[in-house]
Amino acid sequence: MKRTLLLDADIIAYKFAAACDKVFYFDGKDAPPAVDSDFNEAMAGAEEYIAELVTKLNADEAIICLSDPDANFRKTVWPEYKANRKGVRKPTDLMRLKAWFTERYVTYQRPALEADDCMGILATHPTLIKGEKIIVSEDKDMESVPALLYNPRKDTKPRKIGGLAAMRSHLYQTIIGDTSDGYPGARGVGPKSPEAQAVLVSKTTEEAWGHVVAAYKRSDFRPGDYEPVQQATIMARLARILRASDWQFKEKRPILWRPPFG
Prior knowledge:
Blueprint: E1 3-8, H1 9-19, E2 21-24, E3 34-37, H2 39-56, E4 61-65, H3 74-77, H4 94-104, E5 106-108, H5 115-124, E6 132-136, E7 148-150, E8 159-160, H6 163-176, H7 194-199, H8 205-217, H9 228-239, E9 247-248, E10 253-254
Parallel strand pairs: 1-4, 1-6, 4-5, 6-7
Antiparallel strand pairs: 2-3, 7-8, 9-10
């Protein structure tokens, strides 16, 4: 059976572009730094890494999944999504390396989607890619997609994420939020809370959603927040990694996640 790797190229590009950046602050951290970057080194490192993954996982092909650099549908759902990353210096050759990926490899990129969504769509579509598909990513969010997953940082072999486990991961993330992506979840309700722990053992989406709503009803309210069910729904839409059923292929638009009940 043909085996295809779905690679999180955002992470790969950042890792190798950053590794080949030498940053010098001659006038303190507040002044623009001097940067010496080596694109050829970054390119060679990324190419070798991808080849190693293909060999290690005995794959026939690798598809490079990339985020749309110009738009992100989650920012229309929650304008502060990833706003915490504004002003953070990115590796010098990051975008150049991503552009090279599109010339060197088979790539998948769609309007307003992140690389995570591209992997989720390809992994769950029954016919777009024939044979076995493996998501390769270090991002914990990919545990919310029912598919084969390989995390290069901790897995020795691909593992299967079932539908129940994927649902639990998604709604657990809805409660705890994600500081790296800039969305708060249920403020003041942490991963060890009764509601979050109850989601991790829920048997149905309806049961898990009830615990999510309970978490938001007792969360810390801040000016600008919505009422609990609406706030929970917004956070769930941010946490949801798209699957094939969440994407309108002709219109090239996401289908926002809907709760099982209000």
